[in-house]
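Quarterly update from the structural biology core.
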Amino acid sequence: MRQLSGLDASFLYLETPEMPMHVGALHLFELPADYAGDFAADLREHIATRLPLVPALRRKLAWMPLNLAAPAWVDAEPDLTQHIVGITLPEGSGIAELQAQVGALHPVLLERDRPLWKFHVFDGLAPGPEGEQRRALYTQLHHAAVDGQAAVALAQAILDLGPEPREIAVRPTRQRKGQLGLAEMLRGAVAHQVMQLGGIVKALPGAVGTLSQVAGGAVGDSVSGLLARLKGRPGGSSAQGSGLALAPRTRLNATVSTHRAFATLSLPLAALNAARRRHGASLNDAVLMICSGALRRFFTRHGPLPRKPMVAAVPISLRAAGDTASNNQASLTLVSLGTHLADPAKRLAYVMASTAAMKSTVGSVKNLLPTDFPSMGVPWLIEGLTAVYGRAGLAERIPPVANLVISNVPGPTVPLYLAGARMLTNYPASIVVHGVALNITVQTYDQSLDIGLMACAEALPQVDELAAHLEIAFYEFQALPVAERADVAPATPVKAVAKKVTRKVAKKVAKKVARPRAQAPAVRRASR
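Predicted structure, tokenized:
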């Protein structure tokens, strides 16, 4: 028995029919030219050989008596006929039909008496440009079992570097026979609570010292910013993105329904990296900048565009290097997106200053952010508060902290294979919650940045249009000239780059991007 951490278990307590708490992805696969089999059946055989490598797929929940504390993981042998299912689409289906399927399947909760995962295999797809056979796969993995990095590690265990699956040295797995007894579960729960409390007490002195230093630095930064504004220096300009307030209210800050809308987009990774390096920006800066531009375009068209900058909740990993455990080790921070700025150059400077401020703060307290905490009585409390929050429509009444979630998950930059089929895309599908009705998750794969947009279908039915605006914002970012005094090497701290961009802002980008869309690097949408 291994009791779930407080963070892992919280995804179970927060789950309702309106807020399913599983993550996954939509994958498109290209099959060998002579393939004549059943891909769903072949995938079951393949996964059966990899189960020893992926404990997250062969365990289920054991609930504590009266749900007093966090449940535990116990060994379970999955029935692969129930966990890997085939779906036949109308002949000639493409990405639009697949996106609709993900939108329909994503709200369906995973059954808690089984291992918390399910794979959906789609056939009936239109062939590739040269007649290649194609299949698609939509995966669901409960967030209580994995976070973004753990899901990547799980995929690496399942996928191969070539069409010929690698040999796996099978080690016998120890299966626990029978059910856990009441006394055994209570003893384990109490021991876990005591261990957690002991860890908190030991860490308290160091945590207090670190937080005092951070608080002192924050006060100093505030005083410096105030003096800069009084003296008219750039520290008080519109490009200063370090000061973060509550998010403006938008249509995204709504109580979510049981309906989802899903859209996808792929951007050329080499072109994106070339563009962001010219400005000394990180890949995360570039992603946030592109999302900022797309949101500004969308809300300018559909209104109202908030006068205050929109705010993104951005997950940050707390994992140590090389840690591939199947659990959650992440937290959230907030980044202001500068959507109130019409000039793309000023917006980029604003975003870079905002992420630099976030990094300087989070870097100091990263090791203090808890992923585990005592859970005695917590299930009742969180489940009760979640129910009240949704039924009372508090998302429309409480001032919003963030407008959307933007998550950047590093992934493999080489092509991968599953059961002999080459994976063409890796579009993430993530979670929306009451008050935050849009999630944009990006992941690098092969030569692309694959993007998945998950939204509440009632709050944002035009998610396809927002994906198109992301494409336009990418071209805008690609065409953005470098400011005259922004000639700083990429190794220079981001904050220094942001200040130089602020002092000498580039000329405004023309209404039409200088580089015609037809001549720009291809962006994969419905064609892939």
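Residues 182-231 form the longest helix (50 residues).
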